[in-house]
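ok so dumb question maybe but i'm new to this and my supervisor (M.) told me to 'just get the structure for Lipoxygenase' and walked off. so i did the thing. is this what she meant?? sequence i used:
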Amino acid sequence: MAAATVLANPFTLRKNSSSARLSLFHTNGYYHQRTHKFAYGPSLPKMRPIRRTTCMTLVAAPVLNGVQGIMQEKSGMVDLTALVKVKFSKAGSVKELIRRSVEAATSSVEGGVVLRLKRRRQSLVRKLCCTGPSSKAEAEHRTYEVNFKIDPNFGLPGAIYVHSRHQDEFFLMSVSVEGIVHFACRSWIQPLTVDSESRVFFCDKACLPSQTPTGLIELRQRELKDLRGDGKGLRLPSDRIYDYDVYNDLGNPDKGTDYARPTLGGGNNPYPRRCVCRVSTESFTTSIRSQRRRIRGAEKEFMSHGRKNAILGNIIPLLIAKIFGEKNFYVAVDADNQHKNKSKMTIVSLDKLLDKNPILKILSNIQEDAIWGLPDDEFGRRVLAGVNPVSIEKLKVFPPVSKLDPSIYGPQESALKEEHIVSLLEGMSVQQAMDEDKLFILDYHDIYLPYVERINSIEGRKTYATRTIFFLTPYGSLKPIAIELSLPLAEQRASSKLVLTPPTDGTAYWLWQLGKEHVCSNDAAIQTLINHWLRIHASMEPFFIAAHRNLSVMHPIFKLLHPHMRYIMKTNSFSRDILINAGGMIETFHAPAKYCMEFSCSAYRDWWRFDLEGLPADLIRRGMAVPDSTYPYGLRLNIDDYPYAQDGLLIWSAIENLVTKYVNHYYPEAILVQDDTELQAWYNESVNKGHADLSNAAWWPKLSTPKDLINILTTIIWTVTGQHAVMNFGQHPYGAYIPARPPFMRRLLPSENDPDYEHFLANPREYFLSSLPTFTQAAQFAAILHTGSGHSPDEEYIGERNDLSSWASEPEILEAFYEFSLDTKAIAQEIARRNSDPRLRNRCGAGAFPFELLIPSSGSGTTSRGVPNSVTA
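this is what came out, is it supposed to look like this??
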């Protein structure tokens, strides 16, 4: 082992006397190998210690034969130049540069950066001597030149260590040696102590465990062991340990019993596991919080703009409510118009008041006649091309039948009868319409009914368990023909079940409109709590925890998944802090209120299945498609003009093609899948630890063949890309106008025995508005949706990767990624063509908004389009 060599004072940036570039190191000093001090001055009479530095995280790099050639051509020590690219948390600040220089000259703490390479075939470790570096500033990072001296007989390096102690965190982007060997780091480095251990990263060239070079086998195993930890002792924010825990951090009983929440996971509350450092005062969550502060300039500006708009979205409505009154947001804005029956005038008045603040302009993507709720055609269109197009099902049994316990929740039979809808079926019987795939349903009865009584006991919350029947018209659109509103037996008035049909008079019209509002309220909670949070955020996190714990960074499957798991754990930690926690935004603005997470828990227990989360399987499960090999993608859609399914299958197919080529390249035979210890450990742990409460279910897919692996990976990637894009980035355009999609309701429908019934008959508009969230609640919710539906400036979209150097020596993989990139561009063009096709009435025509949620790319901000590589919100 060569003598230790420290790269002294790596972040003291000074002008180099020989060039205009900033210097990474002091140019008049040298490293004394016996005393391990860095000395200054030509005569070096005294030794001055260097200030503390940080642990530089080193990652894998592709090691090509060209390096060995360079080494063998030269005798003696070989000089190599490396470019080290870093980024500081306060990059570009002159004040920061001065501060670092002053601290470096006055600090009494010894430090430095040690770089070491490890041979691929031997366990011998050599330390590299680095001298005479310089730096150059670029737009968002700084690149430093470092000179290495290396023995020509060293051989091909397979891993690299870095040990550093520094007061400031920084982002190590990459290390490139002679432009041939590249270490793609992409890691934030936190300040560590003098006694901290070195970090090791492996060559970027992907290899299965059985193909690991001899000299790296032990390192590869040790690195994974360190990432798993032992579940003991205290953890520091700098610890890189991934572990599982239950959701025991949502409540805050210290604030009172209203803030107590049950633990989700284990026992009677089955739930996926979250990422945490167990037995720790400084949890992984704490480490994630610190990462949120590491935002570069463009992102800071974006976040600052979002915060400002969110503040305005709260302050302005409060001021308006104080001046005009809180009665409702229409009356508050233009009180005189409630007697003029001019909904257009009301919309105009809102626009005039709010057009200088787009956050509060909550009438986006809405028709003018929707002032009193969605018209029937738009109501039906949105279940196919809205923010929640994954709940609609083919009607298979009529009347619908509940699976709930009748001794607790009443008769299982629905109150819907054939006489309610037969006149609306264009001459068909109900059975004929079902046989011809003409009847569809939104069925929220069983998921909602167990919570209705508890929800309705909360002040300002009223709800039903709803069922809605739709008829498929000859034009390919869905027409609502019946709504069933159910209450538990304890709450029944004249009846616990109320059936509404399209209106024939004025009173029926307002009851119909109110019924649709309650359906939309049900739908909003299902979309947010189940289809968005549970099925994507919560259920996918265990697969990525297991990947970090069991797949080496050298593993080809880790490399494939890496951009898709970039943000999910950070996002979920953030959500537990302010969104899904007790009293958080989700509880504040959704009907189940403090029962929100229990609500999603029941769906996980009774309904969630990983084997049915892939798009084709989900469409078949809901009866929206049937297998048919004569159709594209092997599926025949039961509604041809189903924008979510049409566009989603384009993206699913592109992902599947990429994954198929990738998996078959590394696993040409099934035995390689079965013998891959890391791969099997990843999947087994995802199931048995990450989804421990459902681990015994018979429906979990096996992992024995390349085909099994392709299906599992395609499902995961689709869920966190295309599926998440629809659930998240359509929230503002489709949900910010409250009468179109109220997140909760404040009143039940009036019945003839109610004291308010006469008031309803006298002024149905006022009753309608008083049933919705208040003006301030509506405006605040719109502001939140706007912030949560936006893309950050550094968003990476499907088809984009910044780590292709990992496969520099594998042209087959590079070609597969290139084809995938071309596929995403073609998808964007095809969706644009469909959105302009007048035959597709669910996405084109008067009053129909184009369905753009699955267009792969987007600009920053709230754009209603774009499919990021990872869950970012």
